[in-house]
Amino acid sequence: MRIMLKIVIDCDADAAWRAVHSPRAVAELYGPMLDLEPLVPSGMPSAWSPGDDVPVQLSAFGSLPMGRQLIHISERSVDEPDGRVRIFRDSGIPLTGPLASLDVWDHQMAVSPAPGDPTRTLWRDRLVIGGPTAPALWPMLWGMWQWRGARIKALAPTWAHDPVPDTVEPPVDDPGN
């Protein structure tokens, strides 16, 4: 079963690519609905890297345990007619909790410059789930993905690396010259 989003967001593709690699940005996407806490002594990495395997504890609204999940990171890029698409993949698996009944968890996020506007990003988000409980869990996960989409749109402008100032100060004349 699949859940997909396709949205254009207000940041460039490089900023979006940095955000998908940031555990902090990912946590902000789910907050305050869902919290991710690392289960390894070294904590959460400052940035996800290909090959990372990070077990996390999921909690709803900060206190309701929702189970543990293994996050496994890989990435690739594809050249398409409209330009390069960078794809970030979490192919980990739920370990405990309600989602542990799934035997397939494949979450991919693809970012590329928006067609006709390289200052914005075309964000494609796909979750594939499978297993005997997938049909029962799909509506809840679909709702969560709609929340994600709204949060991605709201947070994307904050991902800019070099924010543009609201006003430009005129140069100050130096009377000493």
* Largest sheet entry: 8 strands, antiparallel
Unreliably modeled segments: none
Structural class: alpha+beta
State the separation between the terminal residues, measured CA to CA. Answer: 70 Å
What would you note in describing this structure?
The chain has 177 residues and is an alpha+beta fold. 21% of the residues lie in helices and 41% in strands. The chain contains three helices and eight strands; from the N terminus they run βααβββββββα. Strands 1, 2, 3, 4, 5, 6, 7 and 8 form an eight-stranded antiparallel sheet that branches. Strand 3 and strand 4 form a beta hairpin. The mean pLDDT is 89.
Topology (SSEs and partners):
Blueprint: E1 2-9, H1 13-20, H2 23-30, E2 34-38, E3 53-60, E4 64-80, E5 83-90, E6 93-94, E7 104-114, E8 117-130, H3 134-155
Antiparallel strand pairs: 1-8, 2-3, 3-4, 4-5, 4-6, 5-7, 7-8
Any descriptors?
177 residues; alpha+beta; eight-stranded antiparallel β-sheet; 3 helices; 8 strands
Provide a brief overview of the structure.
This protein has 177 residues and is α+β, with helices and mostly antiparallel strands. It contains 3 helices and 8 strands; from the N terminus they run βααβββββββα.
